[in-house]
Automatic annotation (TrEMBL):
<protein>
    <submittedName>
        <fullName>Beta-ketoacyl-ACP synthase III</fullName>
    </submittedName>
</protein>
<dbReference type="InterPro" id="IPR016039">
    <property type="entry name" value="Thiolase-like"/>
</dbReference>
<dbReference type="InterPro" id="IPR013747">
    <property type="entry name" value="ACP_syn_III_C"/>
</dbReference>
<dbReference type="InterPro" id="IPR013751">
    <property type="entry name" value="ACP_syn_III_N"/>
</dbReference>
<feature type="domain" description="Beta-ketoacyl-[acyl-carrier-protein] synthase III C-terminal">
    <location>
        <begin position="288"/>
        <end position="373"/>
    </location>
</feature>
<feature type="domain" description="Beta-ketoacyl-[acyl-carrier-protein] synthase III N-terminal">
    <location>
        <begin position="152"/>
        <end position="229"/>
    </location>
</feature>
<keyword id="KW-0808">Transferase</keyword>
<keyword id="KW-0012">Acyltransferase</keyword>
<dbReference type="Pfam" id="PF08545">
    <property type="entry name" value="ACP_syn_III"/>
</dbReference>
<dbReference type="Pfam" id="PF08541">
    <property type="entry name" value="ACP_syn_III_C"/>
</dbReference>
Length: 376
């Protein structure tokens, strides 16, 4: 009988050239906060304004596991008169910034899968933000790579990659697509509030990509059968950005804190960990797989303590770094790309038959998982 299963046959990771360490970020934020407090001394004294608290590199590393992050455009971020990247404007006939990131990651994934543009007929750009609404970034990427068929963008915050992988799996399983590229160009820095002590350290920029195809066409050295996928959403206001295309006509200030990423981090931590643990357990059980059968957990990378807690709820002990790798220290939270970076860096040592789970969790709330098995 013909093998009708769908496989992951290639993964690509592209990182920007520049990085920002916690120390650099904290030095700039604290200098900015000092100027703010000095300039507003009178109002702070009367209670009209709150003094800006100082940040600490030690706190960041301990509370989150983050030590450094990649940044697409470092220019402007550490400048206390700007506190945001200064991206160049590209003309309509130039490749956009986000499409460039996506193309870089996609080429690496195609190479690993041993595929060319001719083998792909669907491109999904899945991430937390796209830099414009239309034409879709995915269609620009499709044209840049010379791919036929269809392309579209998908926004599901931190779960964009897993949700898109489910769409890709279903398209191949149904026979409507032969090969799909799922790309996650996470250009998060434009939405980070670098003047907010509670969130200035959380995010980094990166792009990841995955090639999916039918098992029968796979020629990759490292490939994984998708045993199942499960995606759920449940509305929450605890992680939010209010910037949108209507901001211009509501006459709101696009620099207001509520137009940028903001969250109730404590609540997110408390609510999402049990949700993610239950999600993984029920997904595995629907496939008759026990938690202890998992060789590897490629978990979303938001906070090291979240990942340890999730594994502890399921295993009764914290997972080791070999079981549940952490890439947060070098990459920070890269929204939907986090679990794919972990997969990209930690999959080649698995042997045929090993089972792992890719799982994302984040704004929405949204949780997505794929249970995969290494092939011969
Ligand atoms: N430096 C020094 N002290 C600090 C700092 C800092 N930078 N920040 C907070 N503190 C202080 C606080 O003021 C507090 O002091 P006190 O006890 O005196 O009140 C103390 O440290 C503890 O503060 P918290 O309780 O806030 O600290 P936590 O231990 O909870 O850690 C975290 C904060 C790291 C944010 C943590 O809560 C966390 O990681 N939560 C999970 C959040 C999460 O996973 N969110 C997901 C967001 S990503 C997502 O969904 C995708 C969105 C789309 C992408 C957006 C791209 C821009």
């Amino acid at each position: 009988m013909q093998d009708r299963s769908v496989v992951i046959s290639g993964v690509g990771l592209w990182t920007p050239q520049n990085t920002i360490t916690n120390e650099e970020l904290v030095e700039s934020y604290n200098a900015w906060a000092k100027v703010y407090n000095d300039d507003n001394e009178a109002k702070i004294k009367t209670g009209e304004l709150l003094a800006k608290p100082f940040s600490s590199a030690d706190f960041i590393a301990k509370a989150s596991g983050i030590k450094s992050r990649y940044i697409y455009c470092k220019n402007g971020v550490l400048d206390i008169d700007r506190m945001r990247p200064k991206l160049s404007v590209r003309a309509d006939d130039e490749l956009s910034h986000q499409a460039e990131m996506a193309v870089n990651a996609a080429k690496k994934a195609l190479l690993e899968a041993n595929k060319t543009a001719a083998d792909i007929d669907m491109v999904i750009v899945a991430c937390a933000y796209t830099q414009r609404s239309y034409p879709a970034i995915a269609i620009e990427v499709q044209a840049a790579l010379g791919i036929n068929g269809q392309a579209f963008d998908m926004l599901v915050a931190c779960s964009a990659a897993t949700f898109a992988l489910q769409r890709a799996h279903d398209a191949i399983a149904s026979g409507s697509s032969r090969g799909v590229l799922v790309i996650n160009p996470e250009l998060t820095s434009p939405q980070v509030n670098y003047t907010d002590r509670d969130s200035h350290f959380i995010f980094g920029d990166v792009a990841t990509a995955i090639v999916l195809e039918a098992a029968k066409t796979c020629q990759s050295e490292h490939s994984y059968t998708i045993l199942g996928s499960k995606c759920v959403t449940s509305f929450s206001n605890n992680i939010r950005s209010n910037f949108g295309y209507t901001t211009r006509v509501t006459d709101e200030d696009p620099y207001e804190a509520d137009k940028l990423f903001h969250q109730n981090g404590r609540k997110v931590f408390k609510e999402v960990c049990p949700m993610a643990a239950e999600h993984i357990e029920s997904h595995l059980s629907s496939l008759d797989i026990g938690v202890t059968q998992l060789r590897r957990w490629w978990l979303h990378q938001a906070n090291i303590n979240m990942n340890l807690l999730i594994s502890k709820r399921l295993l009764g002990r914290e997972a080791t770094l070999d079981e549940a790798p952490i890439v947060l220290d070098r990459f920070a939270n890269t929204a939907s790309a986090g679990s794919i970076i972990a997969f990209s860096e930690h999959h080649k040592d698995l042997v045929a038959g090993d089972i792992g789970v890719i799982c994302s969790f984040g704004a929405g709330y949204s949780i997505g998982s794929l249970v995969i098995q290494k092939r011969d």
